[in-house]
Amino acid sequence: MFGRRKTPPTPPQQPPGGDKPGHAHVLAHLDREEADKPYQRTQLVGNILFETTQEAVAQDGRIRVENVIVTLASIGGQQCLAPLLQRLAEEGKQLQDVGMTVLKGDDGHLYFFGDLPNQMLAEKQTSLISLAFGAAAQIGARVSVEMIMQEMKTVAQKAGTGDAFLELDLPPQHQVDSPLEIVAAFGPRLVEICDLYRVPPLDRQVAFGFALQRVLTMTKGVIDPDLAVSIILQAAVRASKIDPNRVAQRRSEMLR
């Protein structure tokens, strides 16, 4: 039902950065094998996203697993929407042309809904949540389509309610920053990695799905699998509805 955990890619991992030795070689390798190994690129990038996120969220040399999970889930969720809106703008299409709708909430912010982002988020076998849930099930988490549908309903009801929309329902000792704050702070760095390895914009969420698979597998026994699933689901669904312009504005505020 959910995406299965794939075999790790064979190309050697290179440090993020187009000017690093061997980067062009890796890109050429990925291009040559694209037809026979269509997920090799996103698997490789998923591994790099996982490792980069660990470094980014570490504090005093310590890594809190919840922060790694929520960062990958939040940015992956936003990548189910942002590249899609950009593509529509480039093609001169309106939201209604592809069956999407936008809601302006009581908080004055825009929230986006529709089948296309939902497919990238949860409905395809290689969607963000499907890939994450596939790995989560293998380490003992309870996952189901009904869980996804209920979270979608909850998020739709909370859209436009300000801070209530952004807050995740987690135990106090496992609280994390909001998806908006996370995407604004770390999104550009992780998206840049996708671009450096030429991941098509509409496939970025697949790379984040593989990154979540990696963190779930590596942290088996460290965090309760059901808690990990709850963080992924809540963060990803919320982030997939947030206006990218709001994210950009928040990042600008952070950099002042």
User: Based on CA inertia axes, which overall geometry fits?
Assistant: globular
How many domains make up the coordinates? Answer: 1
Helix content: 55-70%
Terminus-to-terminus distance: 45 Å
List segments where confidence is low: pLDDT < 50 over at least 5 consecutive residues.
Answer: 4-15
Q: Provide the β-strand percentage band.
A: under 5%
- What's the oligomerization state? single chain
Enumerate the strands of the largest sheet in spatial order, edge to edge or round the barrel. 1-2
How many E strands?
2
Radius of gyration: 17 Å
Largest sheet: 2 strands, antiparallel
- Secondary-structure-based class equals mainly alpha
The arrangement of helices and strands along the chain is HHHHEEHHHHHHHH
pLDDT averaged over residues: 92
Number of helices, where a helix is a run of at least 4 consecutive DSSP H or I residues: 12
What's the topology here?
Layout lengths: L22 H10 L7 H18 L7 H14 L3 H9 L10 E4 L5 E4 L1 H9 L4 H11 L6 H14 L4 H4 L12 H18 L7 H15 L6 H15 L4 H12 L1
Antiparallel strand pairs: 1-2
